[in-house]
Amino acid sequence: MYFPFNQSGSKGYSADYEKRMLNWADSVLAANSDRKAILVAHSTLSRPKVTTSGDKPGDGDNSQQSNFTKQGKGIYEMAKNHPNVFLMLGGHIAGEGFRKDTHNGNVIKTYLSDYQSRQSPPYSGAKDRNGGSGTMRLMRLNKTKQKISILTFTPQPNGTVIKEEDGDSKFTDALYN
């Protein structure tokens, strides 16, 4: 389920649209309570202060939880009442982040991944930003092993791949708790 950008305090924000969007999502999640749900929004989390992952690969490790953005908090407040929601994804703020919230025994993990401000490899320090040079995040969900594996990488024109190895770019975690 996808939520377009509509964040309180931002240009074009509509409280009425937010209310209708959250009511719609609430009804879809309730009608499909027997199915696992992943919620994707343009804006869910801010980047934690301990990471440098904004304009180049960082040194984060998921040890400090990110804060919700205004839009992310509103979506979470609706979603936390649906035990079928287990994952929320978003971007908008350059970098990587993570948080884990539990409500009435249901765990929802939220990830930030946004590479649009990334410099081109080899990250010489120049402010050569070109949309992240194609940096991507691969998420593998393994229901059998109950694991989610994350890998962040940048394909190169010569066919090689630069893999990010820091703790908020490459990791494995429990899928549902």
TrEMBL record:
Domain of life: Bacteria
Region (Disordered): 48-68
InterPro entries in UniProt: Metallo-depent_PP-like
Protein name (record): Calcineurin-like phosphoesterase domain-containing protein
